[in-house]
């Protein structure tokens, strides 16, 4: 003889089924979230790999353009150094993305994939540091130091801010790098103190 189900039994069965559904749904959700996260990580790796190649190409384009700019102004570049570092009290004091050196001048270039006003401010601070402490194994004594910033993408206002602060501004336009400064531009000169 079959036992008749009471309301309590039905509620108990219903609660067990609901728990089972919730657990299955949570497991499914967690599994989907894990797959999404793994996909995001994979896409991020692919993007970094592709973007890394693009940024290296951009760096080469910036070097070529700034050397051409200097040559047009009668300044010959003799040395080009990427990732020049200075140390103070056995700690890294600053790092310059690109340092171009001539006989009596140098150009310190900060290169960003996306250039912001904050990046420009940081580079201005770096230029003040460069005039006080030379990069390791590089003699910048008695030279005039110019600053430049370059960006594949220029965030709103960053180019105008850099221009007003006396920095050369290089930006990507299509598949070339152009100098955003006009003929009226007067670059700021930082004199080294060593």
Structural description of this entry:
This protein has 194 residues and is α/β, with parallel strands linked by helices. The chain has a single domain, classed as Trna Endonuclease, Chain: A, domain 1, CATH 3.40.1350. 45% of the residues lie in helices and 28% in strands. The protein is built from three helices and seven strands, in the order H-E-E-E-H-E-H-E-E-E. It has helices at 7-72, 117-130, 158-164, and strands at residues 79-88, 91-101, 105-115, 144-154, 168-173, 176-179, 190-191. Strands 1, 2, 3, 4, 5, 6 and 7 form a seven-stranded mixed sheet that branches. Helix 2 (117-130) links the parallel strand 3 (105-115) and strand 4. Helix 2 runs parallel beside helix 3. The longest helix has 66 residues, at 7-72. It is elongated, with a radius of gyration of 29 Å. The N and C termini lie far apart (103 Å). The relative contact order is 0.12. The mean pLDDT is 86.
Structural class from helices and strands? alpha/beta
What is the CATH topology descriptor?
Trna Endonuclease, Chain: A, domain 1
Query: What would CATH call the architecture?
Result: 3-Layer(aba) Sandwich
Order of helices and strands: HEEEHEHEEE
Radius of gyration: 29 Å
CATH class: Alpha Beta
**Major sheet attributes:** 7 strands, mixed
Which stretches are low in confidence, meaning pLDDT under 50 for 5 or more residues running? none
What percentage of amino acids are in beta strands? Answer: 25-35%
Distance between the termini: 103 Å
Beta strands, count: 7
Number of domains: 1
Number of helices: 3
Helix content: 40-55%
Shape: elongated
Mean pLDDT, to the nearest integer, reads 86
């Amino acid at each position: 003889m079959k036992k008749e189900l009471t309301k309590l039994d039905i509620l108990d069965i219903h609660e067990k089924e609901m728990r089972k559904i919730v657990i299955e749904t949570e497991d499914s959700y967690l599994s989907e979230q894990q797959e999404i996260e793994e996909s995001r990580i994979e896409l991020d790796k692919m993007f970094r790999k592709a973007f890394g190649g693009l940024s290296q190409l951009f760096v080469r384009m910036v070097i070529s353009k700034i050397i051409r700019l200097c040559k047009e102004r009668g300044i010959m570049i003799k040395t080009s150094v990427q990732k020049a570092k200075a140390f103070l009290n056995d700690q890294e004091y600053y790092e310059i993305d690109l340092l171009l050196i001539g006989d009596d001048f140098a150009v310190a270039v900060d290169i960003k994939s996306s250039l912001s006003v904050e990046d420009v401010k940081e580079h201005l601070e770096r230029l003040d540091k460069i005039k006080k402490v030379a990069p390791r194994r590089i003699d910048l004594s008695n030279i005039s130091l110019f600053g430049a910033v370059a960006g594949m993408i220029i965030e709103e206002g960053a180019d105008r801010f850099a221009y007003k602060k006396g920095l050369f501004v290089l930006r990507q336009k299509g598949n070339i790098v152009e100098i955003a400064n006009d003929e009226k531009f007067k670059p700021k000169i930082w004199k080294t103190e060593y």
